[in-house]
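Thread: Modeling a multi-component assembly for a lab meeting

Hi all, long-time lurker, first post. My supervisor asked me to bring a structural picture of a complex we are working on to next week's group meeting, and I have zero experience with this. I have the sequence lines for every component (139 residues in total). Could someone generate the structure of the whole assembly? Inputs are pasted exactly as I received them:
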Amino acid sequence: MTAGGSAGTPYDEALATLQAAQGPVPERSRNMIALDADACTSCMLCARECPDWCIELDSHKQTVQPDGGGRPRVVHVLDRFDIDFGLCMWCGICIEVCPFDALFWAPSPGPVATSLVDLLQDREQLGGWLPAVPGREPP
Ligand code: SF4
Ligand code: SF4
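Re: Modeling a multi-component assembly
Sure thing. I ran the full set together rather than chain by chain. Output:
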């Protein structure tokens, strides 16, 4: 999987050749950052601690009724979560500070892109790296 380009292009063929020559990505390598949006509480800690300001997220408040009864609670619902890998320096601070285990290193080939725009990954793209995280079941 690549951050940009579509399957079957000369770019993808060149990438496949390169990856075949490199062999499998080591399990503990820092390649992509995967997001488990269900675990994210929109606490903003990762975005505030990122030294390069490459994480942006939006959320809204929603009132929910707890399953077992009791008083309604206000929770933050994640609307948008982007990481700009054009700015990221792979320091891992976002992953370290997340108190809810919502961010992970995914040892996938990448990020590779044909333009800077392709290096901006949204919530769905970041979630797409989750199956590559060691020890995680596919969603
Ligand atoms: S790895 Fe570092 S630079 Fe990249 S998004 Fe996380 S905190 Fe920011
Ligand atoms: S630190 Fe974790 S829970 Fe908080 S906004 Fe970032 S990914 Fe979501």
